Amino acid sequence: MAATSMDQLVSLCKRRGFIFQNADIYGGQQGVYDYGPLGVELKNNLKNAWWRAMVYERDDVEGLDAAILTNRKVLKYSGHEDTFSDPMCDCRKCKGRFRADHITDGKCPNCGSTDLTEPRPFNLMFKTQVGPVESDENLAYLRPETAQAIFTQFKNVVDATSRKLPFGIAQIGKSFRNEITPRNFIFRVREFEQAELEYFVLPGEDEKYHELWKEARINWWLEQGLVKEHMNIYTTPHDDLAHYAKACYDIEYQFPHGMEELEGIANRRDYDLGNHTKAQEEFDLEAHCHANPDSTTKLCIRDEENGKWVIPFVIEPSMGVDRGVLAVLTEAYTEEDLGEGNSRIVLKLKKHLAPIKVAIIPLKKNSEAIMQKCHELKNKLMKLGIGRVALENTGNIGKAYRRHDEVGTPLCLTVDFETLENTPESVTIRDRDTMQQQRVNTADLPSFLREYFL
Ligand code: ATP
User: Fold this and answer.
1) Is the pLDDT of residue 69 over 60?
2) Is 347 in contact with 379 (CB distance < 8 Å)?
3) Whose CA is nearest to atom 19 of ligand 1?
C-alpha cells in the first residue's frame, strides 16, 4: 500500500467533516484550523486517552486548567520574552519571510532570489492588551506553551494536595505561536493544543526519570495505533537545546511530509521554578537563574530524606494534540483493493479514538417499522457510555458502510426484516476491518458493546 499523502488526508478531513480551514468563506486564515463534527470527537478521544494514562491510571499526578492570557512577568522570567524567537530572513524580491534554517544555498524558498536580508530575530508570541488602556504595563501574551502556569501554580498545588516528590501536574490546553511559515496542514499552526506533564523530581534523579518518561510515552503512542517502524527518537544535540533544557528527546513520526517532531520530552532542570522563585540565592540551583525581584514566592518543596528545602528538577513530556491527530490519521488511512475493480477507503483508527463508535443502519429507510426499531435502539445504546452512536437514514446500506469505513466507525449495526420477525429479536453487526458480519440478539447488545468498547 502506498504511503498516505497529505492531499488524501486534507481531502478526507474536509469531505467528512474532521477539519476545516478557519475563516474558509473569507479565503481562509493561514495557520489556523477548525475541527468539525468528527474532528472534535477524534481530538477529544485522543485528549481523553492522554488524561486517562497521565492522571487517572497513576497516583502521582494532579491536573490543572490554567488561563491562556499570561501576565508579562511570567514570560519575562521564563526567558520567553528574550529568547522565544526564530531568526528569519526577508526576501527583497518577493517580500516573503522565511525561517533562516529553512533557507538552503542562500536562495529564497519562494522565488529563488538571493537578495535576502540578514537573519533577524522574530518573537513568536502573540501580544495583547489587558484592560482598556494600551500601555506597556497592560501588555499580556497568549501563552506560547501551557507549562508556565504549572510552574507558577506549583506552590499552590503542593499546598492544596500535600504532594511529595516525585509527582507531576498535567494540563491540556491551547497555545499560540506566531509561526513564520505555518504549513503542512495541522502540523505547524499558529493556534494549537498541547498536552503537557511537568513531572517534578529530586535533583540528581532527573536523568533516570527522563529515560522512564521516554519509554512510557513511546508505549502510549503505540497504544494509539502508531507503529514503531514509523517512529524515531531524536536526541537534540547540545547546541540546539531550548534555553531551559539540559537534555531533550523528540518522539518523531513519519508524517506525510517527512519524519518530524510529534512530542518533545525535555529535562528542564530547575530552570523555570528557579527563575520564578524569590531569593534564589538561598538555593543551590544548577540552572543559571536571573535575579527575580518581582516574585513573592519560593517554589520549593521539602526533601523528605534530609528535611532541606529544594527546588525540584522537572521532566516534561509535551505532546502537540494537533500533531497527534495528524499522526493517528496518517497511520489509520488505508486504501483497500476489494477485487473486481472495487476498492474502499477505511480509517483503521483504534476503537477508543473512533469519532463514531456504532452506526445504526436501517435496511430500508421507508419502512416505518424498521425506522422505529432503529430509533428505539439508538435511544437505548446512546446511554451506554461507549461514546457516540449515530443513526443513518440514507437507506442505501452499501453507501452507509463506505461512509462509516471512511470515518473509522468500528461497528455498523443493521436493522432488517429479520430483526422484526425473528424471536428472539436480533441485528447484524459488521466489523469495519474484517467486514465480517455476525448476528447478535438485541437483548445482548448492551453487554456486547460494553465489552467491545470499554
Ligand atoms: P518545532 O521544532 O516543530 O517548532 P518545538 O520544538 O518548538 O517544535 P515544543 O516547544 O517542544 O515544540 O512544543 C511541544 C510540542 O508542541 C511539540 O512537540 C509539538 O507537538 C507541539 N507544537 C509546537 N509548536 C507547534 C505548532 N506551531 N503547531 C502545532 N503543534 C506545535
Assistant:
1) yes
2) no
3) 320
| Cα within 13 Å of Cα(99), Cβ side | 12
- For the question of whether the overall pTM of this predicted structure is more than 0.90, the answer is yes
pLDDT tier at 422, thresholds 50, 70, 90: confident
Domain range annotation of the chain: 6-84+124-329, 356-453
Ranked by mean pLDDT, the top range of 52-66, 230-244, 273-287 is 52-66
Between the alpha carbon of residue 6 and those of residues 262, 293, 332, 407, 444, the distances in Å are 16, 49, 13, 16, 42
The predicted structure's pLDDT at residue 121: 80
Task: Assess if CATH 1.10.10.10 describes domain 356-453.
Answer: no
Average pLDDT over residues 8-26: 97
Architecture of domain 6-84+124-329: 2-Layer Sandwich (3.30)
Does ligand 1 have an atom closer than 6 angstroms to the CB of 189? yes
Q: Is the CB of 214 under 6 A from ligand 1?
A: no
178: nearest Cα among 91, 65, 84: 84
Residue of 123, 265, 323, 328 to mutate, ligand 1, most atoms within 8 A of C-beta: 323
- 356-453 has the same fold as 6-84+124-329: no
Segment among 118-127, 291-300, 337-346, 410-419 with least mean pLDDT: 118-127
196 lines ligand 1 (CB under 6 A): no
Residue 267 CB–ligand 1 contact under 6 Å: no
Residue in this structure with the C-alpha cell 440514507, named with its chain if needed: 394
Q: Rounded to the nearest whole angstrom, what is the distance from the C-alpha of residue 261 to the centroid of ligand 1?
A: 7
User: Is pLDDT at 2 greater than 70 in this prediction?
Assistant: no
| CB of residue 330 inside a 6 A radius of ligand 1 | no
